Description:
It catalyses: 1-(5-phospho-beta-D-ribosyl)-ATP + diphosphate = 5-phospho-alpha-D-ribose 1-diphosphate + ATP. The chain is α/β, with parallel strands linked by helices and about 230 residues long.
Amino acid sequence: MSPASLDRPLTLALSKGRIFDETMPLLAAAGIQVSENPETSRKLILPTSSPDLQLIIVRASDVPTYVQYGAADFGIAGKDVLYEHAAEHAGGLYQPIDLNIARCRLCVAVREGFDYEAAVHQGSRLRIATKYVRAAREHFARKGVYVDIIKLYGSMELAPLVGLADAIVDLVSTGGTLKANKLVAVEDVADISARLIVNQASLKTRAAKLQPLIEAFARASASKGP
């Protein structure tokens, strides 16, 4: 890494939505303000009140990639995203802190009236719609259930309603979307929260700038509790 690159601001990768919103109080606790909201701004690089930090706004599933390859020094991503990323990109990311934000559950859900207990037994086969391929496959493998995975990126709840899949594996927060579409959560796969992730090279070469922010995030997340 050149001396010039060491002088540039740190880059924090975030996604729009809940993770961005719940990260703002953590940054505020570190004395850093972000003046623009990515929901209303067209900018993908956002300055902050600190000359040593800028934000980049990327798709949630891309946050680990930007951090792993050094385009961002650190980022915030859900455990679900990190688990899927690790299936194809082993190593390269340091995960020092569970930030206790964006908490939800990764669940199996089926349409109302579907007899899940009868369908799930040793040696049975199900069609599962999900974007969490690794997590779904491993969950059902532990139960001895064969699965045909149908990878979708959105409108997951539609799949059981139109016969595309027997069940879905998706994130559930309040359960309101499932209820509105006559689906029910029948099994938890994992508890999910957002983690701070750090590029390993940045951690070594830019520790003087990074470490105070990591410590500030740790203090702020600890005050939120589990």
